[in-house]
Amino acid sequence: MTTVLGACGTIVASSFVIFVALSNAPGDPVAGLLGAKSTDAARAAKRAELGLDDPLLVRYWHWLTDALHGDFGTSVVFRQDVAGLIGPRLETTLLLVALASVLMLAAGISLGVAGGVSRRWRSLVSAAVGLGISVPAFVAAGFLTSVFAVSLGWFPTFGAGVGLLDRIHHLALPAVALSIGYGAYIAQLTSAAVHEESGKEHVETSRGRGISERRILRAHILTNAALPVMTASGLAIAGLVTGAVVVEEAFAIDGIGSLLVKSISSKDYSVVLAVSLVIVTVFVVMTTIIDIAQAFLDPRQRGAVR
Amino acid sequence: MAHQTSGPRRLGLLALSLAATAMLAACGNGSDDRPEPVTKDDLVDVLPRAKGGVDVVKWNLPAEPDTLDPANTVTYASGTVVRSLCDTLLTRDPDLALKPNLASYEVVSPTEIVYTIRDDVKFWDGTPLTAEDVAWSLNRMRSSDFVLSFAFINVKSIDVTGPDQVTVSFSEPDELFLNSGPALGVMEKKYSEEHADAIGTPDGGLMCSGPFELESWSPGSSIKLSRNPDYWNAERKPFAETVAFSFVGDATALTQALNAGEIDGAYEIPASAVPALSKSSVGRITFGRSMQGLNLNVARPDGPMSDNDVRQALQRGIDRGALADVIYNGAAEPTYTYVTPTTWPEGQKDAYQKAYDAFVAERKYDVEAAKKLVAKSGYDGETIVLALTAGDDTESRSAQLIQEQAAAIGLTVKLKPLQPLVYDQAGYDAAKRKELGLDLMLSSNFNGAPDPLEPMGFTSLPGQPYNYTDFDDAEATALLTEARQTFDDDQRAEMVIKAQQIIEEDSAVIPLLSTYTTTFLNDRLTGAITSFAYWSMPAMAFIGAAK
């Protein structure tokens, strides 16, 4: 209960901070709506219509009470219901993040374990990690598209596709581009954790007792290394949501990331707030899940989460 | 550990160079029999006529339109879509000349234009177009809620005066209104009133009479049009069954999608994509005449730029040719007056050319002359703040070149990139320009009509939104006002040229480039309008099979 209340508090507090920051950011949203050839009177009327002249707290209160009723307002730019604007895009982004998560975890953990246990693999894995971390997502995006989409023609160059299979086909390259950075990070962390665990006293003892390497790996090393890896994975998945902003732009995918970028530049308040809250919520949910999972894996922390 | 840290870094570089090689390979598969890259000598207004129908044309817009409401159609993207959906009162040829469309017109007196509406036009739902629909659509646009209302400032009334007649009366004569005709889209009154709040949105749609019908708008991903089978205008019957618009804004992503054939074509190709696309093996790039330009606007009446010698020094000290070649990759040409040559009316070109040539000679790039002007001026080394829109790569590189060239003649220029909304606000708000300390603003703009009065009025009449220097010359004002009330083209040109002489002397705007309309089209297609007239026409109707 405390956890849930805390999570809600975090989300509301974030919404307030974002609201204030957005209101104080320079730029007049009416400028984008009416164009530079509009008259002062027309702009004043538009400001009044949008409620931009009300005091900050009043505006926030209106927004909050509406949001609690499930009404996230209307986009001033698209003149469309925010929920209707975000819904289909959120689906796209979540699918992209899900694909990227699978890639990130599969590649990151298996590389990490290989690097952690095998001396031969270690330098290879750390080279791959360095490569993965040093290549920014938008560079990877350009490279992947030019090779796999333009030259080889295996994948489409842009867009999100229609229908599940077509969507996966469209999102495959973006998911690879998105997962590279965090995948490298997970590999690095897993490798270090496995390496550390395999040098521990009880592992050496088990080896001395003649227990098979395979069993030691499963029973001692991986179980204990799982805790930090899981924590990092949870945060990395949340990180993928924000990372999606760059990748969606590069592949011209209509997810919430590209919507956020566009809405910020036009000061489309209700859309920015709603998208930011989606991202904050993902973070809050991920950290809560990690807390709970940690409690189950680590007996010492049991009882810490109520 | 030491060898491990250097390993990844080397690998990182290797990956980058691999990426670069792959990109070069991807871009370089154009074979030798491809035509040479286009130059300004090959300005093309329209491609050879299409030979037959096609199922689909996949066209890219530089951004997603925020609305398809014809009354708010002022961006590249919304214009391209809406003109193919909603017929306008008047229209243009590819060579930008004014022509009747839904209506023919007659200037019955200096303060009265009568439009006669065609009787063979039907909306997509089969309802015939009436004079009532036209009058209602025009009256709706007058409301200050809509961006196009600026065209209606001198309009007194718009009335149905006959079964097929709409009369527009003016409080004072206004030649400019007539020229706005190709921007005024007509909607069905009944449908539009029923969907009042949602007109032009993905939910509300539109009801017009154009060559294409709006099939769907999936926000964020695409807008689809389908052919109007009963279209009235045989000349503009669409070749394509459907048109699918995408909204790829990133220059690299767009280049790749065009080269992969996933997108067939696009207008307003970013200058940075021109080199890669002119070598494309799947399509061709075309430069067309355009009423677009790049200028430096003096941003306030005081400050270092208030000294006319400093302004004249900048006129001479910027190498416009280098700007066009290096930054715009040939997709622009130098221009020496605020009114670009493409904005001259067709019949009066000779008169304008004569006046223009004098400015070309007077403002030719000459570092020594510019230095002398700076020395002669009262300039004492103050910093000149130049504002530009943040995030636009071409503008930012242009600004850097201007900064370097200003330094070479002894002027210290500081660049100040502004977020788009801040820049837009500074565009109409003198207090904001002062607060930000702006001296110059780098601005790209376009005119909707080949009519010098449109741009000149906004910058040079007292109290107008872009008159940043409070320019107020009684003679110039009288000339421009009279010109706007004069329907004789030659007389009007004479007045405008006289006014231009006075206004250009003041140099409140330093003209830099006239930028071309840059179009890419896949080789499977042809017929595209490639001059800026595309923006005033149902451009998608002309595109069809090349073979």
From TrEMBL, chain A:
Domain of life: Bacteria
Transmembrane segments: 94-117, 129-155, 175-195, 216-241, 269-297
Signal peptide start-end: none
Cellular component terms per the entry's GO annotation: plasma membrane
InterPro entries the record matches: BPD_transp_1_N, MetI-like, MetI-like_sf
SUPFAM superfamilies per UniProt: MetI-like (SSF161098)
Main location: membrane
PROSITE patterns: ABC_TM1
Record localization: Cell membrane
Keyword terms of this UniProt record: Cell membrane, Membrane, Transmembrane, Transmembrane helix, Transport
Membrane topology: Multi-pass membrane protein
GO BP: any one term: transmembrane transport
Gene3D superfamilies in the record: MetI-like (1.10.3720.10)
Keyword Transcription: no
Domain ABC transmembrane type-1: 90-290
Family per record: Belongs to the binding-protein-dependent transport system permease family.
Protein's UniProt name: Peptide/nickel transport system permease protein
Lineage summary: Bacteria, Bacillati, Actinomycetota, Actinomycetes, Propionibacteriales
